[in-house]
Design brief:
The chain has 168 residues and is mainly α. The protein is 45% helix and 7% strand. The protein has 7 helices and 4 strands; from the N terminus they run E-H-H-H-E-E-H-H-E-H-H. Helix 1 crosses helix 2 and helix 6 runs antiparallel to helix 7. The longest helix has 14 residues. The chain starts with a strand and ends in an 11-residue tail after the last helix.
Amino acid sequence: YYLVSLKSPRRHLWSLFTQCKYSPWGREQTDPTDFPNDNQKHSTRPNPETDEADFEAWLDHFLFDGKPSMERTNMYRCYHPSNYQSRSFTTHHYKARQVIHETELLPIWEDVRARYWNNFEWVGLAEFFHESKCLLFYRLSLGPTLYPWADEYVAQHCTCSQSSRHTK
């Protein structure tokens, strides 16, 4: 099976930003840079008073005339937010967080389609974890190899009505 779980792009950007700002790894990476952090430099507690302004400054850093800048490879030694999830599908570099060359900012959609989209058996959404899990287990219960535990899970934990279930 080809499986993938994706996150809402907006929530994913926030997650990348807070990883850079608050995690031990992120602080180690960004401390020697001018990463926007009006909070105490070593604080691990979110500060709503500064987070929104810092987030906006972080995003603005990667823009030029309101569009993603191809010259902005200075990532504060952390993440470059432009098309992050899409780039991770197409990069030939082992660290998808990095943008080594400006052409890596834009995913090669033909590569994505050819290598992934046409082959995915299941796409989960992090914001709908339970629903995605139900869909996965339902899909497993329909496969050529029967997984009785998957069918049991769907019956016990998912809100699919029996009459709307696909006939095996």
